[in-house]
Design goal:
By secondary structure, this protein is α+β, with helices and mostly antiparallel strands. The protein has helices at 2-22, 34-48, 52-57, 61-66, 69-77, 145-151; strands at residues 81-95, 98-109, 124-137, 140-142. It is built from six helices and four strands, in the order αααααββββα.
């Protein structure tokens, strides 16, 4: 009886060790602020060029689960503003698996959505200071898609 219990325990230990080796271990979060800065810069560039499929792929797992790619693209298209020429990172801070990016972005205003919270007096462009929180997931810094929909003025 004691032999069978010991053999069963050893077999269970072997199965668990094989299973744990198959599951990837979490990666350490890079603490260099240049990485989330580059991710934010890529997201702003994708938005400026209306590459919503690319911007969607940069989203966090949770925001992609809550918002389909088509709904995201539709909402971004209906937004009243988008980035223009001019972009400067003012600050980047990392705390755990989150990064806060503060940037000055030249925003272009073309059309007005009736539900937009703030609008300039006439179509044109203006510098805006924006903040975005990026999350380190799946080996990369990712954006919250809902935050970008809000920044678009939808």
């Amino acid at each position: 009886m004691r032999c069978r219990t010991l053999a069963g325990a050893l077999a269970l230990l072997a199965v668990l060790s094989i299973a744990s080796a198959a599951v990837p271990q979490s990666q350490p979060v890079p603490q260099d602020p240049r990485f989330p800065e580059d991710a934010f810069r890529s997201a702003i560039t994708a938005w400026a060029y209306n590459e919503y499929w690319r911007l969607y792929a940069m989203g966090t797992r949770e925001s992609r689960a809550a918002l389909s790619e088509q709904d995201f693209a539709d909402q971004m298209e209906k937004g009243s503003r988008r980035p223009g020429i001019g972009f400067e990172i003012l600050d980047a801070r990392i705390a755990g698996s989150q990064a806060l990016i503060k940037a000055k972005v030249r925003m272009e205003y073309g059309k007005y959505a009736p539900y937009a919270r703030s609008r300039p007096p006439t179509p044109g462009s203006a510098d805006e200071t924006m903040q975005a929180v990026l999350i380190y997931q799946e080996g990369d810094w990712r954006i919250n898609l809902h935050q970008f929909v809000g920044m678009s003025g939808y």
